[in-house]
Amino acid sequence: MEIIDAHMKSEGISRRDAIKLFGTGGAAMLLASGATTQASASSSAAKAKIVIIGGGLAGMSTAARLTNSLDNPDITVIEPGDIATSYQPGQTLVGAGIWDVSEVVYKTDDFVPDGVTIIKEKAVEFDPKNNMVKTSGGKTVKYDYMVIAAGLKLDYARIEGLGIEGTITSTGDHSPVSKVIGKNGIASIYFQKGSADTWTQMQKFIAEAKSGKKVKGIFTHPNTPIKCGGAPKKIMYLTDARLREAGARENAELTFYPNGSKMFGVKEYHDAIVNQFEARDMKWNYRHNLVAVDPVKKIATFNRHWKEKGEWDPDLEEYSIVPRSEKVEKEFDFIHITPPMIAPEEIADSPVGSGKGWVPVHKETLQHVKYPNVFALGDIAAVPMGKTGGSARKQYKVVVDNIISMMEGKEPTAKYGGYTVCPLITSIGTVMLAEFDWSKKPTPSFPLDPTQERYIWWLLKVYALKPMTQYGMLSGRA
């Protein structure tokens, strides 16, 4: 933290200015001042029964801020998971052997705000017309306002050949998936056990390369929205770094296979990543969606897709565009799978869901498009922005402010500006802090070139963001 502070000063940024730039709550952890902060929202005497679906980072932070902001809070959180608040961003570091998995596991009970009721069951039926939710244990819970923060599900079953059925969450029981993910060079950081097994498989891959064998590493990005869009590249950068550390990089071919046609949705960050890939001799092939894996033969099958110019249409005076695709097979010694991701089935198929599963909300107020007393945030919300903790950090304050406004008989005027942040790990010791909003342009919090890899952002990622989440967001203050 002293190094971060010193670097800020060398860039002409005082500690006072850094605190302002980083925002309430995070600055104390970031700059190691040891100071505590108070909730910024004014206390309200308004009363209403609020139900929050999901007790992960987004849901529990919302509960905490509501508790801080209301004189007489009546809040119920419906969450079945004992470790729902676990620090998922740290799973990338676990996958590269930098952290142990125990360092990212938090108990949900440790972060339930005083006075909040928690029901350790799953919400399985939604009746928004009558303001009711039913739980897996048969309880009927009524509400005046409902906040949906149920996260998303990992759908490894969509990939043929793995023999996986059903979906899982990042935390909880992963035994069905762990029978195949974490063996035979197959890895995935997207669930807790998988992140630990990724490091085991990566070490075997590095050992093969160090022995002189020519090896191939594959990294995928699916055709669905995913949490932390930068993570598939982060684990690839870290694999590259570990290979170089072992003196075995020249024996490994590393290739990224994203379904899309860009490295990043913001041009400046896309260009920076391409330059980084080229400098590290990391390869990529766009428009490849992983559809099957043969764990025994170690073959990954992709749907390669593109568009071609078709026949001329004399009425429209333009050529038709014809979609094309083909199956291509790629051998691997190590593969990191980013699974397809979906909204929880019980929400997707309910009145509060949508055709695509995600909860439809107005992107700025985060209010449901059909039910004014329902809000959604985090991974489950159908917002055209990254599904990251950085997004949730801005969103939960908007949700709280708008609910309290409505409780007081006012219009919901607080707006989410689309801010999100991706601390893109580019090696062991450097991070590119990619910040942006609806403008799809870099929006750095500090007057530093955001396309540059920096050691101070590595310190931020490894040492500051976890306590900022634990003691900032989950207390409703950051």
UniProtKB/TrEMBL annotation:
InterPro entries: FAD/NAD-bd_sf (IPR036188), FAD/NAD-binding_dom (IPR023753), Sulphide_quinone_reductase (IPR015904), TAT_signal (IPR006311). Residues 49-162 form the FAD/NAD(P)-binding domain. It holds the Pfam family Pyr_redox_2. It comes from the Bacteria. PANTHER family: SULFIDE:QUINONE OXIDOREDUCTASE (PTHR10632), SULFIDE:QUINONE OXIDOREDUCTASE, MITOCHONDRIAL (PTHR10632:SF2). Transmembrane segments: none annotated. One of its GO terms (molecular function) is sulfide:quinone oxidoreductase activity. SUPFAM superfamilies: FAD/NAD(P)-binding domain (SSF51905). This is NAD(P)/FAD-dependent oxidoreductase. It comes from Sulfurovum indicum. GO terms for biological process: sulfide oxidation, using sulfide:quinone oxidoreductase. PROSITE patterns: TAT.
